[in-house]
Structures are given as structure tokens and as C-alpha cells.
Amino acid sequence: MFRMYNVLVTVLCVLWLCLCWFGYAKFAKRQAKRTHCIASVMHRHRISWMQRLLYREQFIADTALLASLERQVTFFASTTMLILAALLTLLSASERLFTLIQSVPGVYPATLLDIQVRLILMIAIFIYAFFTFTWSLRQYGFCSVLMGAFPHVKDGEEASEDDNKFVKNLAKIIDHAGHSYNDGLRSYYFALSTLAWFIHPIAFVFSTTVVVAVLFQREFHSQTMLVMYNIDKD
What we know:
The protein has helices at about 1-30, 40-55, 60-90, 95-100, 110-150, 160-195, 200-220, 225-230. By secondary structure, it is mainly α. It is elongated and about 75 Å long. The model has no long low-confidence stretch (mean pLDDT about 90).
């Protein structure tokens, strides 16, 4: 009876994680088209950045900026690999981890299989994060190549329709790379909330809900977003 109850709790917790994670991602993507958020504001500034490149002869600062973005993604991709190695090590020593967790007062009673399922879930989350980070890294690499083929417009001349199309498409690719990076960061947030599951399922549900609230506040109502939105409005 206890085993069946644990299975039900595990299924409900996984479903709650998927609902919060992918449900929020879909909500944020749809809401970004209706109101201002960090994603929509950043896309506007990326277009402005690309438009200024039309009149520059040297892209030294711009390539350095792009390289800085790549380094950030590379750091998280490398860190993700280290975390995966640590989780796989924990999975191989899950019996010792089970004994350690059960010795902590107030921890929800669980079986060895329950602990292994939670570890496997975290491994799956970080595998997803690694794929999103590396895809973001590849897209930034594409942007570097396209920046090398960037058209040039002389001062006093107007950009052609093809030039403006190039600007918008390159800004869109950088935007896609940024979204992939953001998806990887969200994986870290939800992986941290999964740690609470080792203590109690209710703690996991609460922490996952808090993660959604934090993401929503930062992306749609943070002071940083408001400042970036008002930069060109002042």
C-alpha cells in the first residue's frame, strides 16, 4: 500500500514539474507577444544593434561582445557536464545517499527506488540543459559568420530593403540563441527546486511554484526590464 502511494506521489510530482516548466515556457512565449518583457525588449535592442552595424566599418567591439556572450554559454555548458558527472556518481552510490537522507530528521520516508528516480530526473534535466546550451553556442557561432558577411552602407545613404532584411534576420538568430540560453538557465532553476523533493514532496511542489513566481517577476515585472524598456523612451 505504501509503495503504491509513493508511486502516485512520484507521478504527481513529475507531472507538476512538467506543468510548471513547460506550461510557463509556453505562457511566457505567448505573453511576450502581448506585453513587454525581457525577451521582447532585448529583441528590440538587438535589432537596434544590428542597424548600427550597417554604418560601421570595423566590428571589433561587436565581435568582442558576441564572444563574451559565447563565453557565458560555454561556462554553463561546461558546468553542466561537471554536474552530470557528479549526479552519475551519486546514482552509482545511491544506497549510501539513501542511508544518509533517511538519517535526517523530518525527511519524508522513501525507498531506494524513489531516490534513484529523483536522481534520474535531475540527470534528465541537466542533459536537456546541456543540449540547449550547446545549441545556443552553435547559434552564436552562426552569428559570428553572418557578421563577417554584414553589408555596409555609407554615411548619408539609406539602407536597401535587402540590407534591412539582413539586419532583422541576424537579430532574430541572436534572439533564438538568447532564448536557448534562457531555456538552459530555466533548467537550472527547476533542477534546484527538485532538490527539495529529497526532503518532502510538498516542499518540492512549493519550491517549483516559487520558481515560476520568480521567473515571472523577473521577466515581466523586474526593475531591469522596466529600465531597458524605457531606455529609448526617455
